[in-house]
Amino acid sequence: MRESDTFLILTRDFIWTLFVVVKSIITAYFRSFASLSVCFPRRYKDVSQDIILITGAGRGIGRQIAVEIAKHKPKMIILWGRHKEPLEATAGVIHLMGVQCHFMTCDVSDHEEVYKKADEIRDKYGDVTICVNNAGVVFGNTILESESEEILHAMKVNTAAHFWTTKAFLSAMLENNHGHLVFINSMLGIMGLAGAAEYSSSKFGSAGFVETLKLEIANEKKDNVHVTIIHPYLVETGMFSGCETRFPSLFPALDPEYVAWKIVDAILTNSYMVLLPRLMYFMSFVTKFLPIDAIIAIHRFTGVDVCMDSFHGRKKKKRE
């Protein structure tokens, strides 16, 4: 290839890349503005032919997501969780809404069980087209207090399970160029927190997985296979019961129904990343540029540095 040809190709590719970057930024800001304006109604995709799987669906946000997305009348909702009774309760609510719903007990930390239950779904009902990875676990200990078993379990549920479900369902989505993988993360997957070592670490791992997944799907050039990651602040589900900051009225815990509505809104608009509440976009941006000493000072002023000390699930251990 001649040198002039190489230069022309590089110039063309640079201009195209610059165009895509600018277009993406403008589109992102427009969507953000439209979401706040009644003048621009949200355009939701049709899910009437979708089979939706929700993990950790027995209670909390998982149950609320199932109820919220059932309002849009999908073809079927399938619930996964570790215990039969809460799954049965969630399924009962969905049935009353006139949506076909099935549930299976499944421990997502066990890859063999995930693959087995995924095959069972495929054989009985067809391919899962929307997979909502909601299952999560927190122990709430410092690095030194964390037990090895707890660390491994948190990594399996909060991070490795996303590998299992993605490997179970992504191939069919790519083949059909239709699908959506959703991951319920946390603000602790963006910003660390003292006293939540295993949880924050595993959520950071999940965030890295999701970004890599998005890039790999882009390489496949499958425009109708979507990825969404949600980073909510503290939610009133009891998962972080007892956790308090110095100014609780300034940063109140989020209502589960509101969070579920925002999650479903993100799914139906094929949004890639959502932080809740909107103030967290600013907090995330600022903390990426502040020196670590500044972050420590802010944590101390707001009480974030010791907020996990009152966490109800925390183990009190003597240090020798």
Secondary structure layout:
Elements (H helix, E strand, L loop, with lengths): L2 H34 L14 E4 L5 H11 L5 E6 L2 H13 L4 E5 L5 H14 L5 E4 L14 H29 L2 E6 L12 H23 L5 E8 L23 H13 L4 E4 L2 H11 L2 H11 L18
Parallel strand pairs: 1-2, 1-4, 2-3, 4-5, 5-6, 6-7
Helix pairs in contact: 2-3, 2-7, 4-5, 5-6
Family: Belongs to the short-chain dehydrogenases/reductases (SDR) family.
Subcellular location: Membrane
Main location: membrane
Radius of gyration: 21 Å
Uncertain runs are 316-320
CATH architecture: 3-Layer(aba) Sandwich
Strand order of the largest sheet: 3-2-1-4-5-6-7
Q: What pattern of helices and strands is seen along the backbone?
A: HEHEHEHEHEHEHEHH
Helix-residue proportion: 40-55%
Transmembrane segments: 14-34
Function: Catalyzes the reduction of all-trans-retinal to all-trans-retinol in the presence of NADPH.
GO molecular function: all-trans-retinol dehydrogenase (NADP+) activity
InterPro entries: NAD(P)-bd_dom_sf (IPR036291), SDR_fam (IPR002347)
Provide an overview of this structure.
This protein has 320 residues and is an alpha/beta fold. It has one domain (45-310): Rossmann fold. The chain has helices at residues 3-36, 60-70, 84-96, 111-124, 148-176, 197-219, 256-268, 279-289, 292-302; strands at residues 51-54, 76-81, 101-105, 130-133, 179-184, 225-232, 273-276. It has a seven-stranded parallel sheet, with helices on both faces. Residues 316-320 have low confidence and may be disordered. InterPro entries: NAD(P)-bd_dom_sf (IPR036291), SDR_fam (IPR002347). Keywords: Lipid metabolism, Membrane, NADP, Oxidoreductase, Transmembrane, Transmembrane helix. It is found in: Membrane.
